[in-house]
C-alpha cells in the first residue's frame, strides 16, 4: 500500500520516495481523497481494503513509521460507514463471545494455580492460597503468574516465596539496606515457612 507522511509545511509526501522526488506540499484532498484516522479497528480494516487507499504514517523514534490513518477516495467514505453500521450487531456479539471466553480461560487458570498451590504446599492456610492466587493471576498485574516463560509449578513456587517474603518477614523494612542483602537476611525464615507448608516440619 502506498504511504504518505505529513511534512512540516502541512502537506503530505511519499516517505519511500527519493529526497529529490518528494513533494512536501501535496494535498490528497485535491485528488479527491478523504482522511480517516485510526482508532476504530473495524473501520480501519474496511478502509485498508478499499481500492486506492493510501496509508497515512508518522515517524516514531522507537518503532519507525507507524500508521495514523488512511486516505480513501471520498466517494468510498459513505460505503465504509454503511458497512460499519451493518456489521455493528455482529461485532458486538463477537466481542461479547470473546469476553466470556476470556473470563472462562481466566477462571480455569486461577483454579489450576490454586490447585498447584495446594499440591505443592498441602499445609498452606486457605487465606494464603486465596491471596497468592488472587494477586498472582490478576490480569495485567505484571506478576510472575502472568508470564509465559515459566511452567506452572515454577510460577507457583516463585509467587509463594514472594508472598512469604512480604507477608511473614520484615523484608520491606530491610530492603532499604539493599534488595539482595535484605533477601539474604530473611531467606531462612522463608524456607522454614515453606517447609511447614510442604509438611516437612
Give an overview in words.
The chain is of the alpha+beta class and 201 residues long. It is 51% helix and 14% strand. The protein contains seven helices and five strands. A hairpin with a 3-residue loop joins strand 4 and strand 5 (64-73). Helix 3 (88-120) crosses helix 4 (126-136), helix 3 (88-120) crosses helix 5 (152-168) and helix 5 packs across helix 7 (179-198). The longest helix has 33 residues, at 88-120. The chain starts with a strand and ends with a helix.
What is the averaged pLDDT score? 92
Order of helices and strands: EEEHEEHHHHHH
Helix content: 40-55%
How many angstroms separate the termini?
67 Å
Low-confidence stretches: none
Domains, number: 2
Gross geometry: elongated
Q: Structural class of the secondary structure composition?
A: alpha+beta
Number of strands: 5
Give a quick precis of the structure.
With 201 residues, the protein is of the alpha+beta class.
Amino acid at each position: 500500500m502506498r504511504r504518505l507522511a505529513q511534512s512540516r509545511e502541512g502537506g503530505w509526501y511519499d516517505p519511500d520516495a527519493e529526497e529529490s522526488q518528494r513533494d512536501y506540499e501535496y494535498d490528497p484532498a485535491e485528488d479527491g481523497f478523504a482522511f480517516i484516522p485510526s482508532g476504530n479497528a473495524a473501520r480501519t480494516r474496511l478502509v485498508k481494503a478499499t481500492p486506492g487507499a493510501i496509508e497515512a504514517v508518522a515517524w516514531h523514534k522507537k518503532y519507525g513509521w507507524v500508521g495514523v490513518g488512511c486516505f480513501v477516495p471520498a466517494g468510498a467514505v459513505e460505503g465504509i460507514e454503511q458497512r460499519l453500521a451493518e456489521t455493528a450487531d455482529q461485532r458486538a456479539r463477537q466481542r461479547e463471545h470473546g469476553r466470556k471466553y476470556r473470563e472462562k480461560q481466566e477462571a480455569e487458570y486461577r483454579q489450576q494455580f490454586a490447585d498447584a498451590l495446594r499440591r505443592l504446599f498441602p499445609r498452606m492456610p486457605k487465606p494464603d492460597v486465596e491471596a497468592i492466587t488472587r494477586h498472582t493471576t490478576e490480569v495485567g498485574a505484571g506478576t510472575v503468574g502472568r508470564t509465559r516463560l515459566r511452567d506452572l509449578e515454577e510460577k507457583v513456587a516463585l509467587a509463594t516465596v514472594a508472598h512469604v517474603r512480604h507477608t511473614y518477614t520484615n523484608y520491606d523494612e530491610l530492603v532499604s539496606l539493599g534488595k539482595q542483602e535484605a533477601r539474604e537476611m530473611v531467606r531462612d525464615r522463608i524456607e522454614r515457612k515453606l517447609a511447614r507448608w510442604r509438611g516437612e516440619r
